[in-house]
Design brief:
By secondary structure, the protein is α+β, with helices and mostly antiparallel strands. The protein is about 35% helix and about 25% strand. The protein has an eight-stranded mixed sheet with strand order 1-2-3-4-5-6-8-7.
């Protein structure tokens, strides 16, 4: 099934393909902004094998759209990656994840527009009520972008309650910020 591009003012979201998987990994784990994405100072902290387990092929081949899907963020060239995934047992919630290819792509509004475009698309095409995103609490630039895109930062109490409910999710800890966008 061919997925039509999602077209915005500055960017277009193109359905990711398996051929994109390795470059998407490099943007997230080996770029000059990888340390901000993962809040880790190690030189190489996410192996391709780990990435491959987290980002199964359905993100790149569209075979399970209710579980998740990835998109390449493009201007005239690819500048980043955004994906959604079903969030645990919360059938009315999708989780978003995004990263840009490098520092040179930051601060241009590409991420904010990608989040708005994909969020609007998901609300229109799936029976969901909210989106969530869990950036590192030190990634203030990203948090600002998410708020611009309509997300609302949740209280520490809400994040802690979610962490208790989903204790298997490291991203629910005090090192992350929980934001929701509602339909």
């Amino acid at each position: 099934m061919k997925i039509e591009p999602i077209i915005g003012e500055k960017i277009t979201l193109i359905a990711a393909e398996l051929a994109h998987k390795h470059i998407v990994y490099e943007w997230g784990a080996e770029s000059d902004i990888a340390h901000r994405i993962f809040n880790i100072e190690d030189e190489k902290f996410v192996t391709y094998e780990d990435f491959d387990k987290d980002y199964e092929n359905f993100y790149f081949d569209g075979s399970q759209p209710f579980l998740g899907r990835g998109y390449v963020v493009c201007t005239k060239e690819p500048v980043g990656f955004i994906s959604y995934s079903a969030f645990e047992a919360e059938s009315d919630t999708f989780e978003l994840d995004i990263w840009l290819a490098c520092e040179a792509q930051c601060g241009k509004g590409y991420g904010t527009e990608a989040i708005k475009l994909l969020g609007d698309y998901l609300f229109e095409n799936f029976d969901i009520k909210r989106l969530l995103i869990l950036p590192s609490s030190t990634n203030l630039r990203a948090i600002k972008s998410y708020i611009k895109a309509g997300f609302v930062q949740q209280s520490d109490e809400t994040r802690e309650a979610m962490h208790r409910k989903y204790s298997n999710r490291d991203e629910m800890d005090e090192n992350h910020t929980l934001l929701f966008r509602y339909k």
